[in-house]
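Next comes a single protein record:
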Amino acid sequence: MAETVLELEGINVFYGAIHALRDVSLCVNAGEVVTLIGANGAGKTTTLATICGLMRPKSGSVKYNGADIARAQTHELVAQGLVMAPEGRGIFPNLTVDENLRIGAYARRDKPAVAADLAHAYEIFPRLSERKRQKGGTLSGGEQQMLAIARALMSAPKLLLLDEPSLGLAPLIVQTIFATIDRINKQGVTILLVEQNANIALKHSHRAYVIEAGRVDIEGDSAQLRNDPRVKAAYLGEG
């Protein structure tokens, strides 16, 4: 049985008086792609923010490789291999593609490995290689999403959190992004994926959790959830 990389147990998070996450529990095992699906405002991004130290839970535990990280600082978690590519990409528009990627490795001191990872990022995303001297702000939306994922890979993640990687992208670009996510996973990176496009998320993940109004409502194998009448009706446009 695969070891558990990430485990949330009974997480409650508040924005002021708003109870944003209600007793959320989930786990991610080594080598998996796990997806968290749900409507806009359901609590998906808040879950990721809580995992990577940007939000503090009022109660419950967040464990990464067995250690409770609910009070850890985000930069400490990045150094431990827990890395997020945020919603909205968050690239540096006035820096070149190459500079953006090198910033992803800011905490690393292993220069030969960084150089190897930079070459690998360009190999995974050849379009970025063609544009390495271009400023990030001049890239298309799809290219910026590629850059956000590649920059996260430069932090040498063991667990990669992806927040809405398909947001605002054309269908053909979305297919390219998800094919790359599959490839990254096959190369040994465990992935927790937040995605509004439930159809593609369930096709490219092993297990899934459905979150509604801050609660985990349904969970199971992604293939099973694609055939679940509740998921079909609410998220796949069927039923």
Summary: The chain has a mean pLDDT of 94. The longest strand covers residues 4-15. Residues 232 and 238 are 5 Å apart (CA to CA). The two ends are 35 Å apart (CA to CA).
